[in-house]
Design a protein that fits this description.
2 copies of one chain form a homodimer.
Chain A (H helix, E strand, L loop, with lengths): L2 E6 L3 H11 L5 E7 L2 H8 L6 E5 L7 H11 L4 E6 L4 H9 L4 E4 L4 H12 L4 E2 L1 H12 L6 H11 L4 H8 L3 H15 L4 H10 L4
Parallel strand pairs in A: 1-2, 1-3, 3-4, 4-5, 5-6
The first copy, chain A, binds a DNA duplex (30 and 30 nucleotides) through helix 7 and helix 9.
Chain lengths: 204, 204
DNA sequence: CAAAAAATCATGGAAAAAGGGGAGTGAGAG
DNA sequence: CTCTCACTCCCCTTTTTCCATGATTTTTTG
């Protein structure tokens, strides 16, 4: 029985590319595509594919969120994340939300097929390149608490400890403590480098 | 006579997608593809296409630079930039370096054909979406001097005025002046917002 | 429940940045 | 030759951040 594959990607060229890569494969049945999260979800009400290839960046909703939603509603569907860059944050969140694999858009036909076949069996596929990035950046993975994220965001907005304290109804001293913890977690020597690092790591 | 099209993109899926989109067009002759700048340049030594579809992000060299190089060596070739996002900085630099058009990867087959046809005639193609972004962000365009860029970079590294002064062999007071000018140009109220804005505008 | 983690607050001093001035030099454009 | 612009430099005051240190209270979680 052929594996039913569906694809969600807002880039028409990528959809065409994958369709073309998969069209002669007997083991694959192309069930359709969507260019946004909403039409993906409405498609799933009528028909259930085995595997969804899902871009992480979409106009209406991030692939990260869509992945979670689909997995909650239809746990039997396996999801393979699809993206241009291999960024720790994206890959990790995608996998946390139930994806079974992650393929870069510069993958070859062979890699794509391998991913689909493995994932269809219920296994997990991560290309060497991706898993390397995941391992490497996992070491430098930074976990922020709810409050720290809030404070970080407000610092990035240009607010002082006093202003942030007023906004969050806490003492400026407390904000200062959070600030110090942020500096420590990011190993930043001052606000400037903190914000740069946080921005580069997609925290802001 | 069919328009000879060549494509440079490190994403195999995009190459396949475009090939598939163009394959039935009589007006188009597919001459080949490359997944990096180097093999693109070596291809051009043997054969000259009319149009190159060129991704802006590539492993060995940015499309921006490749565009310039190709245009200098082979002025008769028209180049269409290809990218996932429409960011002012990329589009602008691409056009400055001699590109004749800029197409987003979520473009439809029609848009792509329109772009190729127009550009083949020596005209310029920018999709509505792209030209809108170009216009809008042109207003908020910030021009930094050489020194300001240097200082901004070093501030983002976490260096103080004193340290920057030492590094650039100028007085800390001078650094402070540049800093003030940066704050004014970015309309930032402090270092934190300066760095955030600069990061979001791709200055860092 | 007990331990761990997160969030709260404070004091006090040193360092750095912000905000406001003013001012001279050199290079290039008109 | 004047005007503009980038770059250079300085002074002063206030504000904010950085650093060290210590402590209490929630909240989460095994």
């Amino acid at each position: 029985m052929a594996t039913k594959v569906f694809i969600v990607d807002d880039h028409y060229m990528v959809i065409e590319g994958i369709r073309s890569l998969l069209q002669n494969k007997r083991a694959i049945e192309w069930t359709g595509h969507a260019t946004n999260a909403a039409s993906c979800l409405s498609f799933l009400q009528h028909q259930l594919p085995d595997i969804i290839l899902m871009d992480i960046s979409m106009p209406d909703k991030s692939g990260i969120d869509l992945c979670k939603e689909v997995k909650e509603k239809y746990p039997s569907i396996f999801i393979i994340g699809l993206s241009t860059f291999n960024q720790q944050s994206f890959i990790q969140k995608m996998m946390e939300n139930g994806a079974s694999g992650y393929v870069l858009k510069n993958a070859t036909q062979e890699e794509l097929m391998e991913a689909i076949e493995l994932v269809a069996k219920g296994k997990t596929y991560l290309s060497d390149e991706v898993s390397k990035v995941l391992r490497k950046q996992d070491d430098t993975h930074i976990v922020l608490t709810r409050r720290e994220k809030e404070v970080l965001g407000l610092i990035a907005e240009g607010m002082t400890n006093n202003e942030i304290g007023g906004k969050l109804f806490i003492s400026p001293s407390t904000v200062d403590t959070h600030r110090k913890n942020l500096l420590a977690k990011f190993e930043a020597k001052n606000t400037a480098s903190l914000i740069r690092i946080a921005a580069q790591m997609q925290f802001i």
